[in-house]
Every structure is written in C-alpha cells, then in structure tokens.
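Lab channel / #folding
Pinned by the channel admin:
"Please post every new chain as: sequence first, then the structure tokens as a reply. Keep commentary short and put observations after the output so the thread stays searchable."

First post following the new format, from NK:
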Amino acid sequence: GAEPGADAAAYLARHGVNVTVDRLPSLDHSVIDVLRRHGLDIAADLMVMGAYGHSRLRERIFGGVTVSMLEDPSMPILMAR
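Reply from TO:
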C-alpha cells in the first residue's frame, strides 16, 4: 500500500505547501516523547496530527497521544479528524 501520509502530502504539495512526512522508530520511547523530540529537532513550525476517538476505558488504561499532545504542546498543533 501507499506510505502513511502520502495522500495528504501529495494534496498539500499540489497547493504549494512544502511538506515532509517522516516515519520515526520509537526505540522504547513513548510516541509522545518521539513526536515532541522530532518536532524540536527539525525546528518544526507546526505539527499536523489526526485525532481518533477511542473509548474512555481504553484511553484511561493506555493513555492517548491526542490528549497528551494537547495538554502539553511543544509547538502549535493542527488537529484533523
């Protein structure tokens, strides 16, 4: 199949937006930590994220990347659902 993010990147590129899609290994770090660190490492102006709803029980047990990023953002975040 297509690379994750390829459709969004192609759409934005057609409209003159400079887009980079990065796939990052977690290397035993939380997804939140990896996203924040990478954003800072590349001096990102904006992080674009998809927001997915899960049950409250699942969120309570496993946590939620969306909620955690919004509670303590390290840069502006554009959420799309």
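NK: Residues 6-80 form one domain.
TO: also worth noting, The beta strands are 47-50, 77-80.
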